[in-house]
Specification:
39% helix, six-stranded antiparallel beta sheet, alpha+beta
């Protein structure tokens, strides 16, 4: 009996250990996004209007006063955090001409919902854009048992596109 309890405990710890972790360092994501030659990081200081739009998407104020990004031509890399259930999910986004090119979960700290890191989920965001109501122009399928993580990544996708739009407008003025 003790052997079975010990085995169950070991299995539960190993499954929990697989759930979270660093899947890719943020610096490595940026380097990969720009074929080994990332541009210098830039910073956007969101205007009060942009902050209000971000708050509407997230349901709370974004935690930072400024947000770093990397831009070369029309491609922009963003690394953003949002709480899943209790802890932040760090996600990298590559946007290109107002559409998402790549989504990658970089660091996952929750005990559940880690399935959002897989391509079967993140590939749904390929070529997604924002509507004029700051919604995604396509539905993103949920993952049973990972609803809060799905919501967090989906909200961040909307924020990344909103920020990309703001940076594009800034460069066009």
């Amino acid at each position: 009996m003790k052997k079975y309890v010990l085995l169950l405990l070991l299995l539960s710890f190993s499954v929990t250990g697989l759930a979270g972790g660093v899947y890719q360092e943020p610096d490595a994501f940026v380097t990969e996004a720009f074929a080994g030659h990332p541009p210098k990081a830039a910073v956007i200081w969101p205007s009060s209007e942009l902050k209000a739009q971000m708050k509407q998407i997230l349901g709370h104020d974004y935690k930072g006063l400024r947000i770093r990004y990397w831009k070369e031509g029309n491609r922009t890399a963003w690394i953003l955090d949002e709480i899943g259930k209790d802890k932040p999910i760090t996600t990298g986004f590559i946007t290109n001409q107002g559409k998402i090119e790549t989504v990658r979960v970089l660091i996952f700290r929750e005990s559940r919902g880690w399935e959002v890191r897989h391509a079967f989920f993140t590939d749904q965001f390929d070529n997604v854009a924002l509507t004029n109501m700051n919604r995604l122009d396509r539905n993103i399928d949920n993952i049973t048992g990972a609803t809060l993580s799905v919501r967090a990544v989906t909200k961040l996708a909307r924020v990344a596109l909103l920020l990309d739009e703001a940076v594009g407008e800034k460069n066009n003025t």
